Amino acid sequence: MELAVLMQRAAVDHSVIAAMVKKGIFILSEKEVARISEGNDDAVQLPALSNDQQQALHLIHQAFDQLQPVLLHGVTGSGKTRIYIELITEALQNDKQVLYLLPEIALTSQIVERLFEVFGNNVLIYHSKMPDMERVEVWKEAAGKAKLIIAARSGIFLPFDRAGLIIVDEEHDASYKQTSPNPHYNARDVALYLAMKYKAHIILGSATPSLESAFNVKAQKFQKVSLTSRFGEVSLPQIEIVDLVYERKTGRYKPVLSVPLQKAMAAVLERGKQVILFQNRRGYVPTIQCKNCGWTAMCTNCDVNLTYHKYANDLSCHYCQQRKKNPSHCPDCGSQDIGELGLGTEKLENVVKQYFPNARVGRLDFDTTRTKAAQDKLILSFARGELDVMVGTQMVTKGFDFDHVALVGVIDADALIRFPDFRAVERAYQLMTQVAGRAGRRQEMGKVMIQTYSAEHPVIKEVVSGNFEGFVARELAERKQFWFPPFCRLIVLDIRHSSLENTQLVAKEWTTALQDRLGERVKGPIVPSISRVRNQYIRNVVIKMEKDDALITRTKQYILQLKDTFSQIKELKMVRVNIDVDPY
Questions:
Q1: What is the CA radius of gyration of the chain?
Q2: Which pLDDT tens digit goes with each residue over 72-122?
Q3: Cβ contact 304:318 at 8 Å
Q4: Contacts from 325-334 at CB under 8 Å and sequence distance 24+?
Q5: pLDDT of residue 6
Q6: CA nearest 367: which of 406, 452, 309, 290?
Q7: Residue 292 to residues 35, 332, 337, 338, 444: CA-CA distances in angstroms?
Q8: Pairing mode, if any, of strands 177-178 and 185-186?
Q9: What is the pTM of this model?
C-alpha cells in the first residue's frame, strides 16, 4: 500500500508509521511507479480501407521505398487517420518507433483517443503542459522501449532509439512554429531533418497543405499522394457566399448574422442538427470608442486596443494581460456616448441567443477553455448533442469529427483576408477550408455559408470551388513576383528595449552593418504593426536571401559575429535582439 494512502486511511501522521517500521511491523520500501496512463489492449475492429485509401497506401509505400517524404493531401473527412493507422501498425510490427506530431494535443483529443483504442499500451503522450516528472518518464521511454509517441512540437527533440516513421498531421498549422521561448524552430522542418538523420519514413498530412510543401512537391522533393473524396462516399459540403454588399443594397442587411445565415440556422436547428459559427476574434468587441471625441481604449503597456469582455465588464490587453474597468464615460471629454467597435466571439454568442432563445449555445475560445478540463467538457458536450450551436475562434477549425454538424458559418471572412501579413491569404484559405470541413461528415451533405464584402476576391472563389491547385498556382506566382517565401529565405531580427531611442539606435546599427555586407537584401529598420509590447519598443530588420546554402551559412556566421561585437558596446549590449529564421 502507498504510504500516503495508509496514513490517510488510518488517520495518523508520519511519526506513527515510522515507529511501526522501527518495530518491524511495517516494511518501508521505494518502488518506481509510472505516471503514464495506460491504454486499452483489447483489439479494435477498424473499417476496411476504401479503394482510394488502398491506392494511396500503395503510392506511399512506393515513395517510402525511395526514402522520399510524402505529402498526403486529403480533403477533410477523407480518412487520413485510417491510413496513418496502417502505417503505424507496419512500423510497430517491424519493431520501429513512431512519432505522431499534432499541432495542439489538447485540441485533437478525438484522434488521441482513437489511437489509444487501437494501439493500447504502445501509446505515450508528450507535450509541454504535462507535469515534469511525466515528461521525464516519456523521455526515458523514448530512449528505450517506447513505440508510438503522440506529441506536440516539443516531442521532436525526444531521444529516439530506433525511429522508423514520423507523421506530421495538419502540417500547415502555424502552431508547429516555436517563437517563444528560444529556440525558434518549425517542428515540421525539424521532423524532415530528423527523418533524414534516422533514415526514417516521413509523411506530412493536411487537407490544406502549406505553400512550402506544395512548392516542394513541384520541385520533386516530396511525393504527393491525394485523397479527393470523403470516406464512405460522404459528399463534401455545399459552400455558399453571403454577399454583404448585396445585402446592404437590397435593404435587408442585418449586423453579425445575415438574413440568409439566420434562415439556414433556423432550418438546421428545426431538424435537430448542429451549427458551428467561426469568428477569429475573442472577447465581446475588439475595442470601445467615444462617439463624441473619438477616444479609444488603449493599453498603456502595448500599442494595441483594449478588448472589451462583457462577462467580466472589463477591458483587457491580449498581449500583456493588463485589465481595466469598463468606463461609464469618456476619460477625455466626459461624454457617456461610448460605442462598441467590431465583433468578438462573446458578442456573437449573445446575438445567437437573441435570435434563437431556445438554442443551447456554447463558446470555444481561450476565455472559456483556460483549463483542459473545461475544454474537454465543452467539446464532449457538443459531441454528445447537448449543445445546438458552437461559437468559436480558430479552435473550432481543428481536426474535430462531429456527427451532427449540418451548417458552418464564417462570420467575417474579410478580417482573415486583410490581415497585414504576406501569408494572410494562405491562412484565410486554410482556416475557411478547415472549418468548412466540420460540416456534413456523415451521410447528410453539410452546408457552409461565408459572409463577406469581398465576394469577388480570388481566395473566396477558390474556397467555394475547392480549387486548391488553382489557389497554389496563383499564390505562388504572386510570391515569386514579389520575392517572398518559398522563393527566398527570410531572417528577421526582432530588436526590443524599454527605451525608444536605444531601440532605434541598435536597429540602425544592425541595418547599416548588414547592408554593408548583404546590400539590398536587407530592409530596415522597420516599424512593425504592433510597435510596443509590455513597454518594450520593437523594431525589425528583415533579410531576404536567395536559397543558397553557402550564402546562408556565411550570413549566419556574420550575424553571430555582429551580435558578439555589439554585445561589447555599452550603448548596444542592453538591447535584446532575437534572431528568427523563417519567421512564419
A1: 27
A2: 998 887 889 999 999 999 999 999 999 999 988 766 677 888 888 898 888
A3: yes
A4: 326/288, 327/297, 330/290, 330/292, 330/293, 330/295, 331/295, 332/290, 332/293, 332/295, 333/290, 333/292, 333/293, 333/295
A5: 87
A6: 309
A7: 60, 10, 7, 8, 51
A8: antiparallel
A9: 0.86
At position 207, the amino acid (one-letter code) is A
Contacts 24+ apart (CB under 8 A), 497-505: 497/536, 497/537, 497/574, 497/575, 497/576, 498/535, 498/536, 498/537, 499/537, 500/537, 502/571, 502/574, 502/575, 503/537, 503/538, 503/539, 503/575, 504/537, 504/539, 505/571, 505/572, 505/575
CA distance 107 to 116: 16
Domains and CATH numbers, the chain: 1-31 (no CATH), 51-232 (3.40.50.300), 235-285+342-478 (3.40.50.300), 489-581 (3.30.70.600)
Grid look-up 529516439 returns 160
Residue 200 has pLDDT above 90, yes or no: yes
Distance, in Å, from the CA atom of 2 to the CA atom of 30, rounded to the nearest integer, reads 10
Q: Phi and psi at residue 494, in whole multiples of 5°?
A: -100, 110
Rounded CA-CA distance 120/44 in Å is: 10
What nine digits make up the cell of 487?
522563393
Q: Burial, 467: exposed, middle or buried (Cβ in 10 Å; 0-12, 13-18, 19+)?
A: middle
Q: DSSP state, 96?
A: -
At 467-476, the pLDDT tens digits run 999 999 999 9
